[in-house]
């Protein structure tokens, strides 16, 4: 059984539990067999007692003869926060393994009974245009009242909900959000909120994940400085800018003259320290990273000849 389970006051909790015994004791595993839950000192549940006669308001769901001691505890109170041990009769054996049950409660109008935060996975970077899935998983200690999982933004995608069993046998709810990654999603925070119904109240816990999208250059453009009329001998700089993730790794400048295109530079800025009329023409830049490239719109550079 799990070493630790956290549950909400006034709710319930499922303790998944199985056991094994030595082969020589198998002959004693016959009906009627009873299950007992104990603390260090006291018996708090006996499956042979009536429900209301037990200190722990629980139901033994498993069959002890089949070595299944799965139990659900109802109407949890803070006083139920204890370490519990299981005993099977027969074979009249108290197992040394235990489960620590933590029941959290609200006091003084402060929310001290917040459930564990859900987990969002994966958090790795994704490539633009690729189908992408985010899974939000929250524990469901009380299977009768599982949490509702709500995304702050579905990103024009679809959501599927399923109940899952975790490695320690406890239950959880998973919400899988599937969408197509876009550069507009990069660095966007998305929140998954687990809402637990407890009586007439709802207790919530949330987790935030920041999306990381890899994409080729976007919005590539050219800026001419100075922007006004250019004269022979002026100092002129053409700057190329682009939005990309990862950042642009290579800029290339081209000059267009008729049907000829000439590569001029592989720097982000194309600089003329002493410009002359022969430098006039159409210029554009190419921005490139590992995911692709984009060309800017060509701009006309006109150099006026000195009088």
TrEMBL record:
SMART domains: IG (SM00409), IGc2 (SM00408). Pfam families: Ig_2. It comes from the Eukaryota. CDD domains: Ig. SUPFAM superfamilies: Immunoglobulin. Residues 115-209, 217-304 form the Ig-like domain. This is Myelin-associated glycoprotein-like isoform X1. It comes from Huso huso (Beluga). The lineage of its organism: Eukaryota, Metazoa, Chordata, Craniata, Vertebrata.
